[in-house]
Amino acid sequence: MDKDKIPPIYNVRHQPGSSSMVWFANLTHGGIIQSAEVACRVGEALLEAHYGKDELEHQRPLAATDKGDYWQVDGSRNRDGKREGEGPFFMSIKKYDGAVTDFGLYHHYRPHPAAMQILQAAARKQKKE
Predict the structure, then answer these.
(1) Does residue 45 contact residue 23 with C-beta atoms inside 8 Å?
(2) Which strands, in side-by-side order, build the sheet including 63-66?
(3) Which residues, other chains included, contact 92 with Cβ-Cβ below 8 Å and sequence gap of 6+?
(4) To the nearest 10°, the Cα dihedral for 74, 75, 81, 83?
(5) H or E, element range at 115
(6) Which of 6, 32, 68, 81 is most buried, by the most CB atoms less than 10 A from its CB?
């Protein structure tokens, strides 16, 4: 974070039983997960722990997008969805306390052409109603 830039202020209240350091970090740095770099490092650690080193290597580099009060972390494997099969890693992590609220791997699937006709017909029927 730039030294000249003031971190965002969240509605931070000290909860009984919660750490004073978490409260202080939120006030002074804009959260425990204060940067895209930290969010990506947490994402890498969790990705490796749950899916292994090989999957981590397929997903690198990870990218984090600021979504206000949380970071959206995405992997790079088959991100464009051009190939059927395993897709990118995804994770949402709250800036305030580091809680992970969304986590997994996308899977790109293309239905059989016959199934596509049925789905398109159903969509047209629903649109008319």
Answers:
(1) no
(2) 63-66, 70-74, 85-94, 100-108
(3) 67, 70, 71, 72, 73, 100, 101, 102, 103
(4) -160
(5) helix 113-128
(6) 32
- pLDDT at residue 8, as a whole number: 57
- The pTM for the full model equals 0.65
How much helix, strand and coil, in percent to the nearest 5, is found in the chain?
40, 20, 40
**Mean pLDDT of all residues belonging to the chain:** 82
For residue 93, pLDDT beyond 80? yes
CA angle 17, 22, 27 (to 5 degrees): 120
Cα–Cα distance for residue pair 72/91, rounded to 1 Å: 6
How far is CA 26 from each of CA 11, 29, 70, 72, rounded to the nearest angstrom?
9, 6, 13, 19
Pull the structure tokens for residue 52.
């292994």
Region 31-58 average pLDDT? 94
**Residue length of the chain:** 129
* Residue 26, both tokens: 């939120």
The two three-digit tokens of residue 43, written as one number = 């994402």
Distances (CA, A) of 75 to 50, 59, 78, 83, 98: 14, 5, 9, 15, 19
